[in-house]
Amino acid sequence: MSLALAKHTSDLQPLRQVLCNILVNVLAHENIDDYDALVSEKPAVNLVDFSTRDVLNWKVLLQRSLEEAVATHRWADTAHLLSLILVMKGMQSSWKGFTTWRASMEVLYQSRCTTDDMLYVMVRQIQAALREESPEYTLLLVMYFLCNNKANEAQEALRSVWVRGTSCRGVKSCLVKDTPRMRQVQLMLCAYQGLVSYTKWLTEKQHLLISCNLNVPATQPSQKEALKASMSHHACMAAHTFSVLLENTGVWDIFVVKYIEMLDEPLHAVEILKYYKEKNPSNPNAYRYLYRALLTCNASKDELKSVLETFLKINPSDALILDLVDLSQDITIKVDLLLNMLDFAICQDAHLLWYKLATYLLSIQNKEEVDLVLLMWTDKKSWWPTYHFSTFHAATDNFVLLTSKAVVAILFCGLDSLFVKKAREKVWKFFQHKDTQLLETATKQYLTFWEPCT
């Protein structure tokens, strides 16, 4: 099977020179365990940089190289490594099986020549070599089938896990053990069963929509009814499975999304998502899903704000916070939210945030609100000028971003700011009429309301 991995990888390329040297030495000296002796003949740049080479041997180097190849999606290199690793004496017993077998499955997934027979051969090898861990590898097989729209094959793979013999060394006896790991495996098998039912439901739904769009003759109403009945059956099975998942603490985002998709009742979806949020109060996606469901149900502004205000504590830089800005009525609250978002590097060049902030600041025309905003600025004035308003930031070609930041800089840093001067020069040079008007308005606002308060 290991040789088939390399044979069936169509884009197989030679490994880097250092890896070739190492592998040649390994094949010539199978009993060598010392890494330094292994590479002493032809020193080369290591594929993996080790700081304590004296305690590492060539087996560890190969394992790390295999992990790196998988992590960087270099499937040809992975297949080449596996084809040599799996035929060498003692390699399976000396390594943890997960790395080797997971890499094998990934290569098979990526190969354009992979067949179901090849996958089943791999799974049988897994079950023979690693009986205790075979349920986890069955999940990999099921996911492959689902990704390739083979729900029936995925169903058969799941069924085989539960009905396989009752030998004390079989998979089933492994599953009935009451250990944390096996409870998690059982839960994941249940979750994947729900995905299989969902996939069947979705396929039948697509077939039904196609038949309706093509105006299938009325002589086939029984087939449509049978298809609807089958859809309902698979939806019920998937819903039951997903509801079991929600009773257990964990991140079940992908399953929750599929669960909600099958529901025809938006209010029911909201209740499910509220429960999921309560079970996962630190999961940002739980709030995102609930908020979108509430929008679908035309929920009140107070209910939407309540969800977003809690979400703000978890992810204050998320783009969804802009919805909270729009829902807020107080101009100073809007400004405070935007200022806090712009503290984060991910928002540093978000021109929409800067535009909104500039717009709200220009709309302030009374001393009380100016004082409140300047109080917010107190903790930022020592580092924001360098963070946002340097001459480097004035070099941007995004005039919406440049003008908006210049407006904010005028109001907070004054007319003597070097960033403001550079921005003015650039705007005037390219004669952006609308932008020059905004800068003039900001200047008047600063002289009228902001400078006296500072």
Strand and helix layout:
Elements (H helix, E strand, L loop, with lengths): L1 H6 L9 H12 L6 H5 L18 H14 L3 H11 L5 H4 L2 H14 L5 H14 L4 H14 L3 H13 L7 H5 L4 H34 L7 H26 L6 H10 L3 H14 L4 H13 L4 H14 L6 H7 L3 H11 L9 H13 L3 H11 L6 H5 L10 H15 L4 H12 L3 H21 L1
Describe the structure.
The protein has 454 residues and is mostly helical. The chain contains 25 helices and no strands. It has helices at residues 2-7, 17-28, 35-39, 58-71, 75-85, 91-94, 97-110, 116-129, 134-147, 151-163, 171-175, 180-213, 221-246, 253-262, 266-279, 284-296, 301-314, 321-327, 331-341, 351-363, 367-377, 384-388, 399-413, 418-429, 433-453. The protein is elongated.
What are the key terms here?
single chain; 454 residues; mainly alpha; disordered N terminus
In short:
The protein is mainly alpha-helical. It has helices at residues 2-7, 17-28, 35-39, 58-71, 75-85, 91-94, 97-110, 116-129, 134-147, 151-163, 171-175, 180-213, 221-246, 253-262, 266-279, 284-296, 301-314, 321-327, 331-341, 351-363, 367-377, 384-388, 399-413, 418-429, 433-453.
Approximate strand percentage: under 5%
- How many beta strands in the DSSP annotation? 0
| Low-confidence runs | 1-56, 91-95, 165-173
Average residue pLDDT: 77
Structural class: mainly alpha
> What is the number of helices?
25
Order of helices and strands: HHHHHHHHHHHHHHHHHHHHHHHHH
- End-to-end Cα distance, whole Å, is 76 Å
Looking at the structure, what is the overall shape?
elongated
Major beta-sheet overview: none
Helix content: over 70%
Kindly provide the radius of gyration, computed on alpha-carbon positions and rounded to a whole number of angstroms.
31 Å
